[in-house]
Amino acid sequence: MTIRTPLTLATVHLDIGLRAALGQAPAEVVEEVARSGIRGRGGAGFRTGLKWRLASEAPAPDGRRHVVCNADEGEPGTFKDRALLSEMPDLVFEGMTIAAWAIGATSGVVYLRGEYVYLRQGLEDCLARRRAGGLLGNDILGMPGFNFDIDIRLGSGAYVCGEETALLESLEGRRGEPRNRFPYPVVRGLDQAPTIVNNVETFAWVPAILARGAAWFVGIGTPGSTGPKLLSVSGDVARPGVYEFPFGVTIHEVLKASGGDDAHAVVAGGACGVCVPASDFTRTISYEEVSTGGAIIVLGPDRDLLDVAENFLEFFVDESCGQCTPCRLGNPVLLEGVRSLKRGECTAVRLRELQQLGRTMQDASKCGLGQTSPNFFLSLVDQFGPEILDRVPV
Amino acid sequence: MTTTIPLPTEAPAGVGATVRATINGHEVDVASGTTILEAARACGIRIPTLCHHPDLPDVGVCRVCVVEVAGQKNLQPSCVFPITQELEVRTHTPRVAAARRDIIDLLLGEHYGDCRTCARNGSCELQDLASEYGVDHYRFGQRTEPVFVRDDTGPSIVFDPDKCILCLRCVRTCAELQDVRALGVTGRGAGVRVTTFADLPLSSEFCINCGQCVNRCPTGALTAMDVTARVRAALDDPRKHVVIQTAPAPRAALGEEFGLAPGTPMTWQLNTGLRELGFDKVFDTTFAADLTIIEEGVELIGRLYHALVLGEPDIALPMFTSCSPGWVKFLEHAFPDYLPHLSTCKSPQQMFGALIKTWYAEHHGLDPADVVSVALMPCVAKKFEASRPEMTDSGFADVDFVLTARELAKMLRRQGIDLPTEPKSDFDDPFGTATGSGVIFGATGGVMEAALRTVLEMVTGEPVEDLYAHADITPVRGFDDVRLLELTIPDAVGPVPPLIAHFIPDWDWLRGVTLRVAVAHGTSTARRVVEDIRAGGRFAGCHFIEFMACPGGCLGGGGQPIPTSLEIRKARARAIYAEDAAYGEAGHTRKSHENPAVQRLYAELLTDGPGGATSHHLLHTGYTARGTFVPTGQRG
């Protein structure tokens, strides 16, 4: 994993943002984050300020609220959180501490992807330094009564635990299976207490927003997608790695920077993302156009798109938690459908049934996993119909 | 149209306001927090469900109940979507129909098994849905080979994972309703399955055979072991003298299998139907229930006497009832150190079984080897109970076959018998018609009420009707998880009845004593009560506690007709209490100790009285400390 562009985050001075936050009332901090327009960097794009406001306003009968950092970076093709956790963990912890001040939380958890166990020592060392420096623990930075600390907990390799409610179930010691919405975690999350779950990158941007002001953040990106965004670029490119671009960058510009000019298509968002054809490379990376949690997987001219679809669906067949019907049983059917397309055996009627099934999965699955697992397949059929239908039966 | 539904009894905190939902154009005002499913049902709109069950917490996993909610991007599961603000819902749009059809097709594609050979053919919720949504072919394929091994190694429950649709009702039943946790989920993705600890057969697990999972399984994945063919063969064998005892709970529920509303008793029609099936004699289990009351009541008095008067320190009190075989096995597993608290009395079924192969056979000149003893029970655990190795005191299996209400309904239908239209007829002698006390054994609190009727009357020498109008001891009735009752014995006690005069000299020691009794049903409640006793809580001071494994007692048993719900169980309870009351109106006795057949039994067979050597040989039993760890080396 190489960082290919200068990172704005590397220029942020530590603890300026935290000090700025402690100089304001918690509600003002929430509003500042809301004014920045920052949206969840994990992919779902929920407005961070709104999430914090809901958690801070939710009744906490015993006074407990939690800040959870989703570091279960399991989306195939995504590795920008790993860069942040290894290169600038202080920013992530500082962001969590600011969040704790803003919503009135007393405990924080980093849910670290099981495969990232090798990062744990570095993170623990960083936490120890921050405790020693009065940046965690009791009366943080001399603010009486502001007590907050952070625990690191390891996942065990389940992709679905990156889904925030499955993550919470896992933290509570149960099978990592998504919960029903209503209530949302901001109302009843970890151990029944109001909880915010934010992505690593989201937390990392928070100190900069507090230090430089919401207006600075709004000045970067597009009206609906503010700020810079880290992208994990991989696949058929000359220079894979972590890139920072302002939201609103075109796919073409990303490909140019990473050496993927001859790309046939890109997958925006990882295995749960959509397949974007070359004709759409002028579109922008943004919540308004092509949304991604960070993954840009470049598919070169020699890449068989059905191989990619098969690979992704094999992944989802394995990684579905198996709880709800559309996801548990739909993914295997789509996988078999892709294999029949590869064999040139899929009829037009069958393909329509598979497309409807994909829409049902998007529409009726319990969580984001099942709702997004058909994305690549459906966009493939939409965008590359002739290419995938014209297989000669073998 | 505007309908108002009352607040749910356990409203979530902060709920209380009324909000308006518009469902398919119907306006309905509901208490905030009401689910879309509940609101739709209240205005008569049917939304299909599979994983929803009224007795269980909802999980929203099958996704069959999804609906369109204005303002929501995706379809929403109506069973777990609470209405907290004004809401517009559409339950049957083309988009919803397409999704439901896909989901049903997916489930059918994975479901292995032939409807025509399935125990649930005709009562399967998946089959019904396939019909409702016009499934005419297997769009997403069909399993042609089984993937799993069917577990039919135990006497009570058969588990066929190939028919499982992962609605998790059984897992929630076992964990949330019963707190047994024999069933769990393992695997991930398409490999998820319901399983047992270490994949052992259920018969090797801490499973209490209560069959509550069977009652809530929407398909044929969990069924009761079917013995109808073996019973039919016995009936068709001219050398065999086949008798059946029928318990009150299935009599109150069998009508449901024939399309009648829950709570329509079939006791007397059933007697005729059973004779038409070919049974030589039809007996009433409540005879043995009355016998149980005498034996258990005397055992309780004995324990109290030894503890309170003789001051013996090791007398186990409170005494626990032992009629419910699911509860007995639960205690054997979960609290083996509390087994001395269990009454040593066999259950009515097993007492009756021992008498049929001894006293009855002898009186009728029958070779007990040719007598086949069948029991109609509301219960799946009774099958296990009959198979316990110690249940052979007659020298034979005391009970040969246990039929559930569902199995008997099948046998009747197979024979062309329409139960509701059968003429009424009485039970056979020598056991005759029993008492109302025996009948109420079928409801939670019934054993306690029957025991109190007898004990109070024995001790005070006064008719219990003088203490409780019509002998209805209503404080022990009802469906609260646990009921606690204190009764103070009056100062004026009566003479000791001759039946037990040989071991209790007088009642003076009970004058003014406060008797503390409790009733608990469902093993999750039972666990809480026993843990409370261990912790020295309020139940530790009880003298006698009735425990039933199944919610509602026997009338909610695992062998009862499917479906079940609190409303259905309440209706069955009404039928049972009505039958008890009818005994009084007809001039029959409602008190166990006044049962003439029981009195005759003590005069002719159990001549050394209740708790004597003969009754101990035939009517009492012992227990096995099982613990929570299953035996090794039995991987199934």
Please state the second-level CATH architecture of the domain at 228-287 and 349-421 in chain B: 3-Layer(aba) Sandwich
Biggest pleated sheet of chain B: 6 strands, mixed
Q: How many strand segments of chain A?
A: 9
User: How much helix, percentage-wise, in residues of chain B?
Assistant: 25-40%
First-to-last CA distance of chain A: 40 Å
At CATH level 3, the topology of the largest domain in chain A is Rossmann fold
Count of β-strands of chain B: 18
Unreliable spans of chain A: none
Major β-sheet profile of chain A: 5 strands, mixed
CATH top level assignment of the domain at 228-287 and 349-421 in chain B: Alpha Beta
Count of individual helical segments of chain B: 19
Radius of gyration of chain A (CA) equals: 21 Å
| Helicity of chain A, as a percent range | 40-55%
Mean pLDDT score of chain A = 96
Shape of chain B: globular
What is the largest interface, and how many residues per chain?
A-B, 33 and 37 residues
How many helices of chain A? Answer: 16
Q: Name the structural class of chain A.
A: alpha/beta
Task: Give the secondary structure arrangement, pairings included.
The complex is a heterodimer of chains A (394) and B (636).
Chain A: H1 16-22, H2 26-36, H3 48-57, E1 66-71, H4 80-87, H5 89-103, E2 107-112, H6 120-132, E3 149-154, H7 164-171, E4 195-199, H8 200-212, H9 214-218, E5 228-235, E6 241-246, H10 251-258, E7 265-268, E8 274-277, E9 295-299, H11 305-319, H12 325-342, H13 348-364, H14 368-372, H15 375-383, H16 385-389
Parallel strand pairs in A: 1-2, 1-4, 2-3, 5-9
Antiparallel strand pairs in A: 5-6, 7-8, 7-9
Helix pairs in contact in A: 1-5, 1-8, 2-3, 2-5, 4-5, 5-8, 11-12, 12-13, 13-15
Chain B: E1 2-4, E2 18-23, E3 26-31, H1 36-42, E4 66-69, E5 76-77, E6 87-90, H2 94-110, H3 125-132, E7 157-159, H4 169-177, E8 183-186, E9 193-196, H5 212-216, E10 222-224, H6 228-236, E11 241-246, H7 248-257, H8 267-277, E12 281-284, H9 285-309, E13 319-320, H10 325-334, H11 348-363, E14 371-377, H12 381-387, E15 401-404, H13 405-414, H14 436-439, H15 446-460, E16 482-488, E17 514-521, H16 523-534, E18 544-548, H17 566-585, H18 596-604, H19 613-619
Parallel strand pairs in B: 1-3, 2-6, 11-12, 11-14, 13-18, 14-15, 17-18
Antiparallel strand pairs in B: 2-3, 4-5, 4-6, 7-10, 8-9, 16-17
Helix pairs in contact in B: 7-17, 9-11, 9-15
